[in-house]
Amino acid sequence: MDAHFTSGPLNNDLLWLSGSHRGDYYFQNPDRDDGILRIRRGDQDLWKHLKSHPIPENVMEFITLAGFGGIVQCGNRRLDRALISALVERWRPETHTFHLPIGETTITLQDVNILWGLPIEGNVVSGVELNLNNSQITALFENLVGEELPLEAVNGYKINLPFILTKIKTDLPENPTRLQSIQQARLIIFFLIGATLFPDSASNWVHINYLSHLEDLNNCGELSWGSAVLACLYKHLCKVTDISRTDISGPVFLLQLWAWERFTGFAPEAVNAIDFQKPYGARYVLNNTL
Q: In which band, very low, low, confident or very high, does the pLDDT at 10 lie, cut at 50, 70 and 90?
């Protein structure tokens, strides 16, 4: 007797989105050449710059204080589009888990903390928008990063990421003051927030609300950034399960690190020994693959 396979659940009481899930579509259409997702990201130019211009220790000190040192230590690797696409096909928005032949699994807060080093305890990262006009946005930016903000770099409440990158590439003085080091750290963190942690579909803008969290870097390091990043990843995974979607954004590199750790057959060889002063994701850093 021929075996009968189905892409959906035997009972739809829990997994009620089966008809519109991209996993169903590709089960019914074996030719997957057009099924590999495009990955939206805007941080490649930053990592290329940091490859030849490492962050000075006096700046890195404040990035670590703010809770983002692990992101820099993990660096960047080329994203595996096929692996990410396969994971999306297994993701169920109804349960926020990957449904595999061996059972369910998901990425957790512990994974975010261990793989990327982001804090997962403390106050939430507020999503409440600041009610600011253009002059107030400009004043906030200039006050915290010490750079003038042209109107063409502002779009509503968002700041242009390529503009921020040009300011990051501006060399610091040979002996920067403490304030200059803090301002440079804020610029780098602000860029990472918009391009690596919470990239949108355009990958070119970052909300000014995040910059307000960087005013006091001590307090910034006590916020639960890991919770916000995990929620963002869940959101983008849920959105991209729709059959009509062709690209994915969000903290996709975190998802790839998680897949490498949990499904070791997909992982490249770790090039660094485990350093308990760094996140686990730093084991895969390659200077020539930024």
A: low
State pLDDT tens for residues 82-113: 999 999 999 999 999 998 888 899 999 999 99
**What tokens appear for 74 in the block?**
């993990």
166 closest CA partner among 42, 44, 45 = 45
CB 122 within 8 A of CB 45: no
**Gap between the Cα atoms of 125 and 226, Å rounded:** 9
Q: What share of the chain is helix, strand, coil (3-state, %, to 5)?
A: 50, 10, 40
In the predicted structure, residue 116 carries a pLDDT above the cut 60: yes
Beta pairing class for 158-160 and 205-207: antiparallel
- Three-state SS across 218-282? HHHCCECHHHHHHHHHHHHHHHHCECCCCEECCCHHHHHHHHHHHCHHHCCCCCCCCCCCCCHHH
pTM of the model: 0.91
Per-residue pLDDT at 224: 98
Q: Which of 2, 25, 60 minimizes the C-alpha distance to 189?
A: 60
